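Collaborator request, handled under Task 6.
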Amino acid sequence: MIVRSRQVALVLTAVLAAGAACQARDHEPRGRLAPSARKAAGFTLVASGDVLPHDSVIARAHYDAGGAGYDFRPMLAGVEPVVSRADLALCHMETVYGAQGDYTGYPAFKSPPEVANGLAATGYDGCSTASNHTLDDGAAGILRTLDALDRAGVRHAGSARTEEEAFDVTILRAGGARVAHLAYTYGTNGLPLPQGQPWAVNLIDEHRILSDARTARQAGADVVVVSLHWGTEWQDEPDQQQLTLARRLTAARTGSRPAIDLILGTHAHVPQAYEKVNGTWVIYGMGDQIAGEMFNHQGARDARGNQSTLGRFTFAPPARPGGRWEVTRAEFVPQMFDIDAGRVVNLNRALAQGADLRAVRDRIREVVLSRGAAKDGLVMGE
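Structure tokens returned to the collaborator:
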């Protein structure tokens, strides 16, 4: 929803203010209790869609910083309660970061590195970084981006500064589990991989993904999560490549367990369906969590480009040694980026405060459930 009445804008303002190869490298998510301090060994994982700062988003962050630098924390404050309470929270950082003062939006994105600080403050533990914009500023852009994420304490998967890093497994601890995060993109908008660095960004290849997943298991991962930048832009329904690849990836096994435990999709700009495939949850597309005013392939302004979901999955430890960590609860939380307010809005919380956003929320719900996920237990969360 791009244009809102003054009444709705005031309600949203109130809501937002209230909300205000492999070497395995382990990481304990910030602010979480260590496994030994937990009563239960299970964990919750929250994931969200594309962070895609257009020029207007960059300008808003500059305004929120009082004209001195960039502050993305207020932009994300509306979803901080959901993100920070998860044991493990993953985002998708679609763009790379520019050099100081050299920040641009579409078509070649170079975002302020302060985005990483905003993600960390919101509670994100890691981000996928493989997208069609990963090479928008070549190897230098990857270097700046991963350096900034490291400084902020946000882990990353999907792009690399060195060959060694490219073949490391990103493993994060959540509850009593070690969670591997892998990430891949369908392409890089025709931009060539940096000379001598064919490993700079992970490209989607079924055999490579499954090989990496199996290597992650060998490195000790209890749960393997794969982020895929795929699909057809502006299409609510998953395309044939998504359906086929999801079916093949979820059918693969590593010993007695599935090779992959969860698939997180991005790229289409719009929310797409959730579906349980071969016993594994797949989000075909979460939509853009942060983006400026969006225009579809027909050149028309399209409010769907500012709508998205958070996925939330509760994992329980295996009933027997060597068994699979099972998803015992699957949820989606509808959200939108309100351009006028420059804020991400949790739609259910906004509705509870009186915002006139029911039609937006209901459209997202219809799309998310369009492939029968409700019968497998997917519910809408708060």
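The cover message to the collaborator said: "The two ends are 20 Å apart (CA to CA). The CA atoms of residues 127 and 156 lie 5 Å apart. Please let us know whether this matches your experimental observations."
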